[in-house]
Amino acid sequence: MDATRLAAACAKIDEYAAVGAPMSGAKIAAICAIIEDGATARKHRRKKRRRRLCVDSTRSYKQIGEVGIGNFGAVILARHRKTGQAVAIKTFRGRDGKKSPDVGEVLREACFLAASAGHPNLVGLHTVARRPGTKEYFVVMEFVGPSLRHALNKHLRIHDAPFPEADVRRIMRHILTGAQAMHSLCIVHRDTKPVNILVKEDGRVVKICDYGLAISDYDERVDLWSIGCVMAELLSGKVLFKVENGVRQIDKIFDLLGAPAEETFETFMSPFMCGKVLRRRARLPPPRRDSRLRELLPSDVLSEDGYGVLKGLLTCNPKERLTAATALQLPWFIGTAGVP
């Protein structure tokens, strides 16, 4: 599914949702047909090949066990009863006080997964499935393996140290390559973190997953900030800007990276947030302007080339922040192009 088909599918979901009434089975099938047509075009299937059902049944899969759980749903490992293929089935919970999930959210995530299918660093869609006799819908995705959070914790437990720079570079190349592909489709993830990045058991393939907060046509550099936080966590073994003891996250950011000039706040904050931060700053001592990022990750942990990537990702002003494509052209990656 290309960016045009993706936009058309999302627009159709918004159109049906605007009515206010529950989406009918016919409308759901129509959206699933758009998703499948996009997948068909992408895979260049023969025109005479018989079309499979747009919406599958959960009875087609045998559940094996739960592999992840979050605020808005859970992911279940399952196996297709006929083919034996392992898949991941995402269930959804209701949001904003609703008892049941919004089927539009399910279909929107299915659209993003369908657009991502086939890329080596993005989790792709298999199908949309419905529980028979209900209006519960699920997305059936490719199964990859444990999360990067799990892999990092395992490494910390075994080696009593975070990943070495060479491993982080390999992982970051995969993440940035996936992000570049996402952004070329006008998909902005908005929730890139270790738990939403999957690692194959052999550790050689890394894939971005979970499009629950993803949207189209948004500033892609919000993802690059998150990816910079992931990189720092892989190198340090600790969440970079973890909120604790009542300290505000913005204060942690400014303390580590240095506070930018107040007149530039509006370039990377909403007017409301900008006014709120400036009023609070007026009551506090002058903030530090210099960055302490190098103190956190000294040269024996991260080379100068690697530090250039991290610093470029963790730039407060999004207009000055690296894009995924630009980051991948920096010496840290170019000098090791043949390294897996």
From TrEMBL:
Residues 61-333 form the Protein kinase domain. ATP binds at residue 90. This is Cyclin-dependent kinase G-1. The keyword ATP-binding applies. The keyword Nucleotide-binding applies. It comes from the Eukaryota. PROSITE patterns: PROTEIN_KINASE_ATP (PS00107), PROTEIN_KINASE_DOM (PS50011). One of its GO terms (molecular function) is protein kinase activity. Keywords: ATP-binding, Kinase, Nucleotide-binding, Transferase.
